Amino acid sequence: MITSPRVSPAMHALAHLHLRTVAFVLALIAASASCAQGAAPARRAEPPRESWLSRDDVRAFITEMSTEHGFAARELERWLAAAKFQPKVVELMSRPIVEPPKWFEYSPRFLAPARIEAGVAFWNAHQATLARAEERTGVPAEVIVAIIGVETWYGRYTGSHRVIDALATLAFDYPRRATFFRGELREFLLLAREQGFSPLVPKGSFAGAMGLPQFMPGSYRRYALDFDDSGRADLFASPDDAVGSVANYLARHDWQRGQPVILPVKFDPEKRDGVLRRLDGGLSERRSVAAWAEDGVTAESLPADLAPEPIGVLMLEEGVSDASHWLAFHNFYVITRYNRSRLYATAVWRLAEALRAARGPG
Predict the structure, then answer these.
(1) Cβ proximity of 334 and 255 under 8 Å
(2) Catalytic amino acids?
(3) What are phi and psi of 339, to 5 degrees?
(4) C-alpha to C-alpha distance for 176 and 359, rounded to whole angstroms
């Protein structure tokens, strides 16, 4: 029988100390390796921010809302004290765009089969409302559905930022567009009072856009319709109200019934290069149809009743080295009133065409 040697308390303590030393050295080695691999050091806790209520510009906003719109100062103070600064919102708004995306980079997610399929399902579910909106405003059903599809995937993704947090952050801590967002914060508080909801509840985009069609508060108050006759325009929960409101928005921005959006271009080969030099960021200045015709630019099928509005030439990068060119008509520019991006407007129209083709007649 083999017996274990007796270990004195001193030797035991020395061994324990040795193990702790080894563990410490190994931890240092691991930390060093982590830093060498580019691991970010732990962030230091940010110092607490001063309350918005202690700032002169916020106090001036409270005074304005009280004197001009009849809000109780204490109520405004409570709401703004509950609003939370969102550094992520400022980061998203300030993110630089080194180079605008190309069409072939931008468009696939909006024209994916799943989005088209979901759009057809939305159209079928609300076809009577869409037909009523089209008949009243002249805005095609497929355009209405496409805008809701591009904005929120037909209501699936309406935003996770509390609207008052986003708007207060941008109104008071985003100097570049503070004037605009203070106006939207004012509109939001007025909307909450008119609709009878707490301004601390709604959620939306990081810029404060809300509901299925992602209306900013000012647009909500100006263009939203109670299209289901419920007593108020609810863009958060009523697809009917969203449909009617999108149609109303485009109609109020002068949508022309029965007019085209974009049509493929035909060039006079001898004048083509001169025309293409007119493009600025993919979209030319707007000129009359006759002026473009003099430069050898026509559409493949101009409608006989074309409205006498100036039009532009649109270029889309279909691939790394390929481009297509289109005449962009008045209704194209109406869509850009919803979002100023030429790519956005084109995505809406291309999705609208895909929805119409997938759904078929009827």
Answers:
(1) yes
(2) 151
(3) -150, 125
(4) 44
Nearest to 85 by CA among 42, 44, 50: 50
Range of the domain at 179: 53-97+157-224
Number of H helices, E strands in the chain: 16, 6
Q: How confident is the model at residue 190 (pLDDT cuts 50, 70, 90)?
A: very high
Per-residue pLDDT for 12 more than 70?
Answer: no
Q: pTM of this prediction?
A: 0.85
Chain length of the chain: 362
Token pair, residue 15, equals 């061994």
Contact 166, 208 (CB under 8 A): yes
DSSP state of 3: P
SS3 78: helix
Do 72 and 214 fall within a single domain?
Answer: yes
Nearest to 28 by CA among 38, 36, 16: 36
- Cα 236 from Cα 222, distance rounded (Å): 16
Concatenated DSSP letters of 296-307: TEEESS--TT--
pLDDT at 26: 42
Tell me: pLDDT of 6 over 70. Answer: no
DSSP bridge partners of 262 = 328
110-154, pLDDT tens digit by residue? 999 999 999 999 999 999 999 999 999 999 999 999 999 999 999
On whether residue 70 sits in a domain, the answer given is yes
Q: Quick check: is 90 in a domain?
A: yes
Residues 62 and 79: their CA atoms lie apart, in Å, by 11
Within-domain flag for 161:
yes
